[in-house]
Amino acid sequence: MSVAFRRDSDEEHKEPKFEIPLPAGPNLVTARGLALIEARVAELEGAIAAEPEDEAREALKRELRYWNTRRTTAEIAPPPEDGVVGIGSRVRVRLAGKERAIDVVGHDEADPHADRLAFSAPLAQALLGAEAGERVDFNGRPEAIEIVEVSAIPD
Question: Which SUPFAM superfamilies does the entry mention (predicted)?
Answer without folding.
Answer: FKBP-like
